[in-house]
């Protein structure tokens, strides 16, 4: 609903601007128009090549008659007619245009210098406004995109810049769309392409990430040792309750060693047998 209301207000403002641009020619203007029309009729076989114009499907023509815009709507696509002496027209391309924002050196909110570039997609939504309200809509939009990129990213810290690209792109699109609305430009999409960090900062972040991974690995290993000790404690309690379970465990160990085709077989002896011999020796 908010987008629809914004679009309605935008259309109304554009219509008001166009209505201000289009006005009466006055007596002298009508006299010149009549004279031009008369000469076009007199020289009809020749003037037809000067009066008939064609624009493509993706183009519109804004006609100026004695320096004033004739209609509230641009002509085209197809064939339209102009008067040879009093009318001039400007072609406007209505297709979506994309351009790259050159890499910008930006100082973030936490005083880190980064190089950021992006891409902007825009199109002409009102041909009359794009011709009458700005001298070069394409160049003006490019320059405005560069300054908007700096202004938006200057309010973000490095962590937000690296993690919240979608939010930054949406903020830039809103700012650009509002600024280029009087020019008849509709910004469709803004994307952040690449964020280049200084080499020293990259090494520092890599060292920090490596230290963090090592710390997590040590914590995981310690947790594994703790769980293993608990399991061994429970197993020892079970074996202590049933001495025959220890003998079965010995046999399982011997079976595992024999299955690996080893030349050496280790036969474990109970500790009570060894302690018996130790007592006799004393």
Would you write up a description of this structure?
The protein has 282 residues and is of the alpha+beta class. 57% of the residues lie in helices and 21% in strands. The protein has ten helices and eight strands. The strands form three sheets. The chain has a three-stranded antiparallel β-sheet. Helix 2 crosses helix 3 (44-51), helix 5 (137-153) crosses helix 7 (165-180) and helix 8 (199-241) packs across helix 9 (243-259). The radius of gyration is 40 Å and the shape is rod-shaped. The termini are far apart.
Shape: rod-shaped
**SSE string, helices as H and strands as E:** HHHEEEEEEEHHHHEHHH
| Poorly predicted residue ranges | none
Helix percentage: 55-70%
Secondary-structure-based class equals: alpha+beta
Lateral arrangement of strands in the main beta sheet: 3-2-5
Beta-strand content bin = 15-25%
Largest sheet: 3 strands, antiparallel
Gyration radius (Cα, Å) is 40 Å
How large is the count of helical segments?
10
* Mean pLDDT across residues: 79
DSSP strand tally: 8
Distance between the termini: 97 Å
Domain Band: 50-209
Subcellular location: Membrane
Transmembrane segments: 30-55
Keywords: Membrane, Transmembrane, Transmembrane helix
């Amino acid at each position: 609903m908010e987008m629809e209301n914004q679009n309605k207000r935008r259309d109304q403002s554009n219509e008001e601007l166009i209505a201000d641009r289009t006005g009466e020619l006055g007596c002298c203007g009508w006299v010149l128009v009549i004279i031009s029309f008369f000469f076009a009729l007199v020289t009809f076989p020749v003037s037809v090549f000067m009066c008939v114009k064609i624009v493509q499907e993706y183009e519109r023509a804004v006609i100026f008659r004695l320096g004033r815009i004739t209609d509230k709507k641009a002509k085209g696509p197809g064939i339209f007619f102009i008067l040879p002496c009093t009318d001039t027209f400007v072609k406007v391309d209505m297709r979506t245009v994309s351009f790259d924002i050159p890499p910008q050196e930006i100082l973030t909110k936490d005083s880190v210098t980064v190089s950021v570039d992006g891409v902007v997609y825009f199109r002409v939504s009102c041909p009359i406004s794009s011709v009458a309200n700005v001298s070069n809509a394409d160049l003006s939009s490019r320059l405005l995109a560069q300054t908007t990129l700096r202004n938006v990213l200057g309010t973000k810290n490095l962590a937000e810049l690296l993690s919240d690209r979608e939010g930054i792109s949406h903020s830039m699109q809103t700012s650009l769309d509002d600024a280029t609305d009087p020019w008849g430009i509709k910004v469709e999409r803004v994307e952040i392409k690449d964020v280049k960090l200084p080499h020293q900062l990259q090494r520092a972040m890599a060292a920090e990430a490596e230290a963090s991974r090592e710390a997590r690995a040590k914590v995981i290993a310690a947790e594994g040792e703790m769980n293993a000790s608990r399991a061994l404690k429970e197993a020892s309690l079970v074996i202590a309750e049933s001495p025959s379970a220890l003998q079965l465990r010995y046999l399982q160990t011997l079976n595992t060693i024999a299955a690996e085709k080893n030349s050496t077989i280790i036969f474990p002896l109970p500790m009570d047998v060894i302690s018996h011999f130790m007592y006799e020796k004393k």
